[in-house]
Amino acid sequence: MPAVVLFPVFLSGLENSVSPCGRVSLLIFFALLCFVGRTAKDVFLSGILFIATVLVTNFLMIFGAFDSLLEHTGTWILIRTFYFGLAACFIVVGSLYLKDWWQYRQDGENFQARLKLPPCIEKGHALFDGSTSRSWGWRQFTVKDLLLIVFLPTILGYVMMMLGSVWPQDYYIFIVLATSGMEGESTKGLLALAYYNLAFILPFIVVWLVILFTVLSEKFKLFLVKHVQFVRIIFSSLFISSGIASIIFLIR
Length: 252
Known about the structure:
By secondary structure, the protein is an all-alpha fold. It has eleven helices and no strands. It has helices spanning 3-17, 20-36, 40-62, 67-70, 73-107, 126-129, 143-163, 170-180, 186-216, 218-226, 228-251.
């Protein structure tokens, strides 16, 4: 299939990934990696499972595996209600980060943060006192480890993709009909779908690699701590903008 055809397919996947629903999923994924991963291997495994679940769920959704569930009116009401609540929470969290940033400008080092930063960049967290490890060596997994590192990322990946089904699927329909729908074009259709889904998970991969690098690099963690107020304003912007964008999309 010519690159001139695959490039728009790739761009459409990226665009869908950073849609209001996609940004919500990215922030949930970010929070998962920050607060679950105690070692580099935890972050690696959790990220792989979440991204793989997103990829598989996307493919299954394209081929109608969840149509019977998504056709129910109650499902759509539940999904939209959840997004409204999540969007409101994002705006509150972003506002608290913004207030902390402003308060720090007023009080300096004496201020008390209303909202803690992710553990991987919080001063005094275990990543700095040695109780967590950058080692890739195996350790004995407990039931809690299995729940947090294996089952939680898998379930969240599936749930967030199902919730994201409220976003219009025009690109999916175009790709399927324009390629695999023609006689003898099934291979090209699958290739287009693969490109689309690879583009869709690319932002997730970037977030995953950034968190993994943060856990592995002591210098980078110290850099983030040194510029912690800049990190707060970035978090504030991401949460507030994602919350507002989600609400605007839902009420349109």
